[in-house]
From TrEMBL:
This is Enamine deaminase RidA, house cleaning of reactive enamine intermediates, YjgF/YER057c/UK114 family. The keyword Signal applies. Residues 1-19 form the signal peptide. It holds the Pfam family Ribonuc_L-PSP. Keywords: Signal. InterPro entries: RutC-like_sf, TAT_signal, YjgF/YER057c/UK114.
Length: 160
C-alpha cells in the first residue's frame, strides 16, 4: 500500500471517528507546512561570560513537530520543599513560554522527590498550575536522591 493510500485510509477513518465522537483530528502544523517533522533545540542564551564555553551536555528544551520536551529543573538553594517546588514550576513555565507553549499545554510531568515524605507538601504548590485539565504525572523518590541537593526536580512534555 502506498503512503498516499495509507494516508487516505487514515484520514477516512479519522473523518468517521469525528462523525461518531465529535472529536476533531488535527495533524501537526509543521508536517502540514513542510511535509517533514524537525527536531529543534531551545538552548540557554549565552552571555559575554560564557560566549566561548563548550556546548552544553544536554538541551534544556527540544521540540519535534508540535511536541516539546523540557529537561528536569531543580532548585539548588537552601529552602523548604514548598519553596523548591514553586521555583521549579516558575522556571519550567518560563521555559515553556520561551518555546511558544504554556502550563496549560503540558501533557506529561515527571516529579522526582528527594524524600517521598514531601509528597503532600509538594502537591500544595503543584496543584492548580496546569489549567482545567492537569497533565498526567508520575512521582518517584530515587534511591540515590536528586543531583545537586534539590528537594524536587521536574521534567515534562508539552505541545506548542
Amino acid at each position: 500500500m502506498s503512503k498516499q493510500s495509507r494516508r487516505s485510509l487514515l484520514m477516512n477513518a479519522a473523518s468517521a471517528a469525528v462523525a461518531v465522537t465529535g472529536v476533531t483530528v488535527v495533524e501537526p502544523a509543521v508536517a502540514q507546512t513542510t511535509g517533514k517533522l524537525e527536531k529543534k533545540s531551545y538552548p540557554v542564551k549565552k552571555n559575554a561570560d560564557n560566549a566561548s564555553a563548550a556546548p552544553p551536555l544536554f538541551s534544556s528544551a527540544v521540540s519535534y513537530g508540535n511536541l516539546l520536551f523540557l529537561a528536569g529543573v531543580g532548585a539548588h538553594f537552601k529552602g523548604t520543599i514548598e519553596e523548591h517546588t514553586k521555583h521549579v514550576l516558575d522556571e519550567l513555565e518560563k521555559n515553556l513560554i520561551g518555546a511558544g507553549s504554556s502550563m496549560e499545554k503540558v501533557l506529561k510531568v515527571n516529579v522526582y522527590l528527594n524524600d517521598i515524605n514531601d509528597w503532600e507538601k509538594m502537591n500544595t504548590v503543584y496543584a492548580g498550575r496546569w489549567g482545567k485539565v492537569p497533565p498526567v504525572r508520575t512521582t518517584i523518590a530515587p534511591a540515590g536522591g536528586i543531583p545537586g541537593n534539590s528537594l524536587v526536580e521536574i521534567d515534562l512534555i508539552a505541545y506548542i
